[in-house]
Write a structure and sequence with these properties.
Elements: E1 12-17, E2 20-29, E3 36-44, H1 48-69, H2 77-82, H3 92-105, E4 110-112, E5 125-127
Antiparallel strand pairs: 1-2, 2-3, 4-5
């Protein structure tokens, strides 16, 4: 009843849930929190027709995850990293805090810069998941 790939782990499953079936597909990890993300859908009934609908739903959700993972742009990574905001130079820890908060509010997930003195383990990129609170 579960969808399996020819090698490795299966990315989705169909499981009994109350008086029906539940389709669960692994969608990756959330970029900010790092938590696992799943797509779920409930199918009413447990007969053969419900199992067939669950298989179709499983394939639909797997396709949806594949489309989300595929790139929709032909812009190079270097262009993305260098365009948009100009380089910013701030003075002191208070200036760094103010600027990082401003960038986070604007939607930044990773902040590039020289953090070797403030956070030696961060290296040139500061991931918001590794930043001290």
């Amino acid at each position: 009843m579960t969808a399996a790939r020819s090698e490795g782990r299966s990315r989705g499953r169909i499981e009994p849930h109350g008086k029906g079936l539940r389709v669960v597909v692994y969608a990756g990890t959330a970029p900010v929190t790092g938590r696992r993300s799943y797509l779920r859908e409930k199918i009413d009934g447990t007969d053969k027709a419900a199992c067939k609908r669950a298989e179709k739903t499983l394939n639909k959700l797997l396709t949806q995850v594949d489309q989300q993972r595929a790139t929709t742009s032909s812009v190079s990574l270097s262009h993305t990293l260098t365009s948009g905001r100009p380089p910013v130079v701030v003075d002191g820890p208070d200036g760094v805090r103010r600027k990082i908060r401003e960038l986070v509010r604007a939607g930044a997930e990773v902040i590039r810069g020289a953090f070797d003195r403030a956070w030696p383990s961060a290296g040139p990129n500061l991931s918001l998941r590794s930043a001290p609170r």
